[in-house]
Amino acid sequence: MHRVLAGLALALCAATGFAQPWPAKPITIVVPFGAGGNTDTIARLTAGHLSRALGTVVVVDNRPGASGLIAAKQVLGAPADGYTLLMATATQMVTAPFVNPNFNYDPAKDFAPVVNIGANAFVIATKSALPVKSLGELVALAKQQPGKLSYGSGGTAALTHLSAYIFTKRAEIDMVHIPYRGAAPAMTDLLGGVIDMYSASPSEVISQASGGRIRLLAISSATRSKELPNVPTIAETFPGHEVTTWNGLVARSGTPPEVLDRIAAEVVRMKDDPVVLQKLEEAGVVPLFTARAAFGAQIQRELVMWGKVLKNSGIRAE
């Protein structure tokens, strides 16, 4: 009788899909950029919180390259069980598929939005040796030397690229784009004077602002940043200019909705942790904690918006 009951119990668990409680093993958050950048910082904050909340190990796996294609494919190649997540940016979910034929996936169909954690603008930073001290002076110098000044990015069609691209178009200046494999090497070459400009996430330049090795000329948000109050907005020179990006968790489509809901609910609770909020603020990140349905709607809107920009841009991945 005991064996019969045990067999019925196992059959019931298998039929209902609850043979094991979730999570039953470590979770991996795949980061499409190298260690030390804005996305990596947010991923590690999230991993620490989820590890405590879920009582399991949460590992951060940095997989830089190809504007996030390597990381995206790693997640798409894993089972749809919630144990492999992507700390996505607008690059992987919105912009890169328009300009890179190797991004042979449909962001809206192949990924399931989980939660959008935070947004950030971009800071126009120049090397200290460049003889400019304001955005107006940078534009004037670039117009005097068309095609001579350079700007770096974390990769072709990464938002660090597109934010600078949109700025140069609005300012009607010609600068040479130099893509890197992530934000860290671009920032290194800016500090080393190899490139003239970099449109950086605030977390990359806040700590460098007082060192004298770079100059912060303007920020792409609609209003000035609390962390950089003396840095004017680009909109103060070019009214209406605003470019931002975000970092959010997505999973492979087909992941059980109850798992997605559990992850989203736990991540949203990060907004109640003052330490997390302080660290996000210090990195220049505006906390959002937008859960599944609203996050998915945002991605759909941005696919339409960026599609209009990129289809006529001529930008193509190398």
Detailed description of the structure:
By secondary structure, the chain is α/β, with parallel strands linked by helices. It is 41% helix and 20% strand. Strands 2-1-3-10-4-11 form a six-stranded mixed β-sheet, with helices on both faces. β1, α2 (38-54) and β2 (58-62) form a beta-alpha-beta unit. α4 (90-99) runs parallel beside α12. The longest helix has 19 residues, at 292-310. The protein is globular. Residues 1-18 have low confidence and may be disordered.
Keywords:
single chain, 318 residues, alpha/beta, five-stranded mixed β-sheet, 12 helices, 20% strand, globular, disordered N terminus
Strand arrangement within the widest β-sheet reads 2-1-3-10-4-11
What structural class should be given to the helix and strand makeup? Answer: alpha/beta
As an assembly, this protein is single chain
- Helix % is 40-55%
Percent range for β-strand residues: 15-25%
Alpha-carbon distance between the termini? 67 Å
Largest beta-sheet characterization: 6 strands, mixed
